[in-house]
Specification:
Largest sheet: 6 strands, mixed
Strand order of the largest sheet: 6-7-8-3-9-10
Helix content: 40-55%
CATH superfamily: P-loop containing nucleotide triphosphate hydrolases
Distance between the termini: 43 Å
Protein name: ATP-binding cassette domain-containing protein
Number of strands: 10
Organism: Neptunicella marina
Keywords: ATP-binding, Nucleotide-binding, Transport
CATH class: Alpha Beta
InterPro entries: AAA+_ATPase, ABC_transp_ATP-bind, ABC_transporter-like_ATP-bd, P-loop_NTPase
GO biological process, one term: transmembrane transport
């Protein structure tokens, strides 16, 4: 069976300019390789600065790789073809509040990607917007609301709706639950699990929360200093970690979960 998503030898190097008081800094993402099947969730874990978010940016086209390829359903994603990437791979951001324009209604927010990327008329776009809002556990009437009228959990559902609105094949979620309290976080996790079961999309889930990672992921990539140091099925990584760094992460999680 062919993979939904194939990442081959993807590499990236970024440099920040130095100043009088700060040295020039650079980050290098070593060539990485992985595959994602339809309906599968792959989690990427590691410390801050390990390269997790850089991988997310490369996948959605927010950054251009220095080399390597991203292949979706056998089709190579062209680095300069933003529309192609926008239709196929969508992102859910960590801070839903800052990613929602406060001056637009939710309907207008969700209408933007449809206007830019489809040929649907106004009636069809409204139908898709209302159906998508219901799909993420909101009401069709929420299309007339503004972001400030929503709870944090509802804002995150809108962020999920915006990712789903173009019917993508892969969703990249970069720490989507970090700003949510535990009860709302649990509801949002269950929502994503249900959406994946219903829609069959592939999920790439970036998180520090190993409890959620263990609950929702099928496979795990462990990253450190821009490298994938270990990869495997979730139960194997948690029960039989090989790399010392992975063992440190897993043992720290197990110690906390026993308290």
């Amino acid at each position: 069976m062919s993979s939904l998503l194939e990442v081959k030898d993807l590499s990236y190097c970024a440099k920040s300019r130095g100043t009088l008081f700060k040295r020039e800094q650079s980050f290098k993402l070593e060539p990485i390789n992985f595959e994602l099947q339809s309906g599968e969730t792959m989690a990427i874990i590691g410390d801050n600065g390990s390269g997790k978010s850089t991988v997310a940016k490369l996948l959605v086209g927010a950054a251009m790789p220095d080399s390597g390829s991203i292949i979706l359903n056998g089709e190579t994603m062209q680095p300069g073809n933003i529309k192609q990437r926008c239709l196929k791979i969508r992102m859910v951001f960590q801070h839903s509040q800052s990613s929602l324009n406060p001056g637009l209604t939710l309907g207008a927010l969700l209408d933007e990607p449809l206007k830019l990327n489809t040929e649907y008329d106004g009636y069809e776009r409204r139908r898709i917007i209302e159906e998508t809002l219901v799909k993420v556990g909101l009401m069709a009437e929420h299309a007339h609301f503004y972001a400030h009228m929503l709870s944090e959990g509802q804002k995150q559902r809108v962020a999920v709706a915006r990712a789903l609105i173009l019917n993508p094949e892969v969703i990249v979620a970069d720490e989507p639950f970090a700003a949510l309290d535990p009860s709302v976080r649990s509801q949002t996790v269950n929502l994503l699990v249900k959406l994946q079961q219903d829609l069959g999309v592939g999920f790439i889930f970036i998180s520090h929360n190993l409890g959620i990672v263990r609950h929702i992921s099928d496979r795990i990539l462990v990253m450190r200093h821009g490298k994938v140091i270990e990869a495997g099925k979730t139960d194997v990584i948690f029960n039989w970690p090989k790399h010392d760094y992975t063992k440190k992460l897993i043992y720290a999680y197990q110690s906390l979960s026993k308290r």
